[in-house]
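For this section, I looked closely at the sequence of one protein beside the tokens encoding its backbone, which the following lines show:
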Amino acid sequence: MRDIENYKFEKRNTLTLVLFVIYLLALIWIILFKLQFSIPVMEEGRIINLIPILGSFDDNGVIRFAEIRVNILAFIPLGIYLCLMNAKRPFVRNVLIIFGLAVAFEAIQFIFAIGRADTTDVLSNTLGGIIGIGIYALLSKILKGRTNKVINVLATVFTVLALLLIVMLLVSHRWVIIR
């Protein structure tokens, strides 16, 4: 009986790891490749904004909350996945991992001139990861021992839907030629 439980646990961990890798690849594609198949080069060169929110204004002086919201939403799964893979990892350590990844993305964008490095992005990405940690903690209280199983099922469904959406976008924009 114990061997069956260990097998199910290992199988669930493998699923979590596969889903996490797919999520990271999608995050890289979104942040670094801007949903393209080649790296977009910024014509204006390297840009860095060290003042939070300053780079989030449009030409009319209105804050573009949509971009901030997307940055938050993109990193919520990271917080959830970090907890899924190691629920005993301290909160601060998870936040540092999220913050480090956000800074790494911004640094890569700056170094390769493929996007604007912005502190607002780092802050909103970190906030998204913290929200993900909170969602996992809330689900843990509600679902008790079934938390990882339920989240894995939901993550699988959302991953399949996201991949189908990407395929539909590729086909509809003729990025992929079907013969």
Summary: The chain has one domain: 2-172. Residues 2-172 form one domain. The beta strands are 47-49, 116-118. The mean pLDDT is 83.
